[in-house]
Amino acid sequence: CFGFPLSIFFIVINEFCERFSYYGMKAVLTLYFTRFLHWDKNFATAIYHTFVALCYLTPILGAIIADSWLGKFKTILYLSIVYAIGQTVLSVGSINDLTDHNQDGSPDAIAVNIALSMVGLILIALGTGGIKPCVSAFGGDQFEEDQEKQRGTFFSLFYLSINAGSLLSTLITPTIRATECGIHSKQECYPLAFGVPAILMAVALVVFVIGSRMYKKVKPQGNVMLEVSKCVGFAIKNRFRHRSKKFPKREHWLDWASDKYDKRLIAQIKMVLRVLFLYIPLPMFWAVFDQQGSRWTLQATVMDGDFGFQIQPDQMQIVNPILIVIMVPVVDSLVYPLIKKCKLNFTPLKKMTVGMFLGSMAFVAAALVQVQIDNSNPVFPAAGQTQIKLINLGAVPATVQFQPQLLSVDVAPNNETGYMTFETSKLQSISIISANNKTEDLHLLDRQRYTLAFKWVPTDISSTWVKDNVTSKPEDGKSLVRFINNFSFPVNVTMGDMGFGVLDPLSVSNYSAIPNAGWSYTIKASMPQYTCTVDSKEFGYGGAYTISLDDCVEKKLIITHFEDIAPNTIHMAWQIPQYFLLTCAEVLFSVTGLEFSYSQAPSNMKSVLQAGWLLTVAVGNIIVLIVAGVSAIQEQWAEYVLFAALLLVVCVIFAIMASFYTYIDPNEIEAQFSKEEKEEDKNDQDSNEKKAETDSRL
């Protein structure tokens, strides 16, 4: 088909569906941990990076299975089945109603959901990692030796399908997650958010199987990684046996393997080890890079995602693939040629060093954004403190005194104060002075917020105390709302599809989450003779509001909005600079790193370097889970600065290591070995001929 084997189109479609499945699931994973399983941010981050680390450890296993036992086709087929099962198990594990027997909206046995989720993630890691090194190589096997141009075009299509799957899934699955679904209660729709990737993985499997009769299936020919491991192991073992001084030293410790392995293989492994030595500092870059899906997503949850339309926190990850698609051709066709014209020797290792520096700067930018977020957040009561807010619902001004002589506050009619902080042990009573006086003794709890709503009525002051039960900003980005009845008779209150029940005079409802922040809702107050309605103002993201129902004029409800917690004010667009810097870092570091590695190793050792590269990604994620698990740092901006500093130190170390590296041409070294082997064969042939001639004379 157009000069291409028909089979490669099945492989490209398979890769698109698989990448959609993986990145779509991964995009919503952190929020699933924090919002559905209710894990704290550090534990959620640790489990997320454990999963990513597994995804980059299992490719080594997949490559060994494919090359030494099953072959690429069967490895892809069997592990894709495991992969699809894993996605399905994860989707089932995220069903809220699975163990919600009392239908209260919360699983009665959350351990079941956790167990299913972990089993699903382990199967996914085994599946996606196991097929990772096989699919692209299997596609390359479909071409004949004279189809080099078509093979190059295939790899371009292949990587385009990866980016397309990543970009679309990162856009779609967070939108699905943000919708509400459920049998007994409506909540964020994780079953569908994980279910769509599961369906795509099933489609990928079906497409791959349909093309099975068209594939060229190369038999397993042994895995070079096992051969390299055996050679290195033998060299170490042999060196240990001959550690005595009576044995002469050898030029390189690998030369101790020459008793069993040929010189060409030993020389090839030496070339690989020189590159792998440079890999030692690289995990720190991946420790920074892969936090896009964890820490940066959690950072976006407390930011304003209103771009004229609502962007979900986990959708901000889409900035990276968009910038990659734009920047790779720009850098290759514009930036690098410009640097070359300036006669600057911008070697691959220098590019990687600059990439690490930009990665460090990306986390400095993230820290600056986090400082702004922290400064915009409300201050909640610490240990030994209580906060009180006053709302005057009457038409007469009042003065509130906190005894013993701690503070005196004037409150205008139909107005509020902010939250005031007191030492719990010192606050004993409160006096409300208006047309009448009223004094109340206080028995308040530590680290709590309270609202005192009051108003003057003839001959008395009516008041109500409410414990707010909210001591942090809503972490799911939604806003909270509650109502206070300022009528002199009971009122049944609804807002949109939410019911708040019948409120007695001066009573307050519990907080309820607003389904869609940024929307306006119709508020309805049902009274004995008539019903009054009004449209609310648009609610912000991550705020908390109290709405006072004050009056009804010609069936129009008169209300007052009070802001208990300010909504998110730092816009998600402020994350774009850190994504830009990290994407620049990725282009310079990741793309160049693979190119450098492949240029410095023999052709038959490419898979060893790929395994080493993937291992650096896994180790980088292990670094994050260790830091998240044991770090005593309380402030998130400080953790960002820590990672930035660590990467900067590693960048300097890598620059020093790179300065001592000498670039080689593996092809020349291979050619030299080939020449020497030919000369040895010729000498052996001449020797055999002379021996035969001598034998004939005798």
List the helices and strands and how they pair.
Layout: H1 7-27, H2 29-36, H3 41-70, H4 72-93, H5 110-141, H6 148-178, E1 180-181, E2 187-188, H7 190-210, H8 224-241, H9 263-278, H10 283-289, H11 295-300, H12 319-341, H13 348-376, E3 385-392, E4 398-403, E5 407-411, E6 415-416, E7 420-423, E8 429-433, E9 437-441, E10 448-457, E11 460-467, E12 480-485, E13 491-495, E14 498-503, E15 512-513, E16 522-526, E17 531-535, E18 544-553, E19 556-565, H14 576-599, H15 606-630, H16 636-659, H17 666-697
Helix pairs in contact: 1-5, 1-6, 1-7, 2-3, 3-4, 3-5, 3-15, 4-5, 4-7, 6-7, 10-15, 10-16, 12-14, 13-14, 13-16
Structure, explained:
This protein is of the alpha+beta class. The chain has 17 helices and 19 strands. The mean pLDDT is 85. The protein folds into four domains: 1-222, Growth Hormone, Chain: A; 223-261; 282-377 and 572-665, Up-down Bundle (Growth Hormone, Chain: A); 385-565, Immunoglobulin-like, CATH 2.60.40.2890. Helix 4 (72-93) packs antiparallel against helix 5 (110-141) and helix 6 (148-178) packs antiparallel against helix 7 (190-210). Strands 3, 6, 7, 10 and 11 form a five-stranded mixed sheet that branches. A hairpin with a 2-residue loop joins strand 13 and strand 14. It has helices at 7-27, 29-36, 41-70, 72-93, 110-141, 148-178, 190-210, 224-241, 263-278, 283-289, 295-300, 319-341, 348-376, 576-599, 606-630, 636-659, 666-697, and strands spanning 180-181, 187-188, 385-392, 398-403, 407-411, 415-416, 420-423, 429-433, 437-441, 448-457, 460-467, 480-485, 491-495, 498-503, 512-513, 522-526, 531-535, 544-553, 556-565.
